Records
---
Amino acid sequence: MNINDIITRLNEVFRDVFDDRTIVVNEKTTADDIEDWDSLAHINLVAAVENEFGLRFKMREVSSMKNVGDMISIISERGK
């Protein structure tokens, strides 16, 4: 799975979770870039990403994610 495919799918997940069709994420996107991305939304987002990609993040992975790029890296590694 290449990075562009992952980003395309993540964009759809983010748009669904935040109910905002204008969201476009990239590797540098952080919670500061999306208005409603708070701790509760983060939990919903992680669950939605896990469902989309058929994986489960480890707690240490979730707590170490600083931006969407970190999420992409984990998904990319697991997709091999």
---
Amino acid sequence: MPGLDDREWMLAARCRGSDTSVFFPQKESGRGPAAGAERDAKKICRTCPVISECRDHALRNAEQHGIWGGMNYSERRAADRARKLGRLSPV
């Protein structure tokens, strides 16, 4: 949402008020209960009006845990590497 400062976008986040364990599963392994939580989190993210702001925040702040902007830590690291190699626009 254009015009929102660095933290105001959080007020419009679809996850606001949700159980944080969905977005911060105990283990981001791709298997087991954490994988189910990750899928649930990403499903919420897909319909979020501020998914881009959330993802940008996580990349700018090198968030190491949780689902941010529909991405887990490994996905964010890959996106950051691609950005640094000039394959993505800067955050």
---
Amino acid sequence: MIIPIDQIAPDTLNNIAREFVLREGTDYGEIEAAFADKVEQVIAKLKSGEAILVYSELHETVDIRPADSYQADAEE
């Protein structure tokens, strides 16, 4: 289930993004970005619609996924 980010408190959204960055170990290109910058980039992608918050009822977890990959998964 997709969670609309406008229904999430800003602090909660920030904490979800922080946890995602810590867990994913995401590659941000040739230049290593600071942790705070990575968190801001994740939040910006959520706000722009490039990424979405997804709640798994089965695992009772929240994840951040690319919007286009979620659509592909939903169609299969």
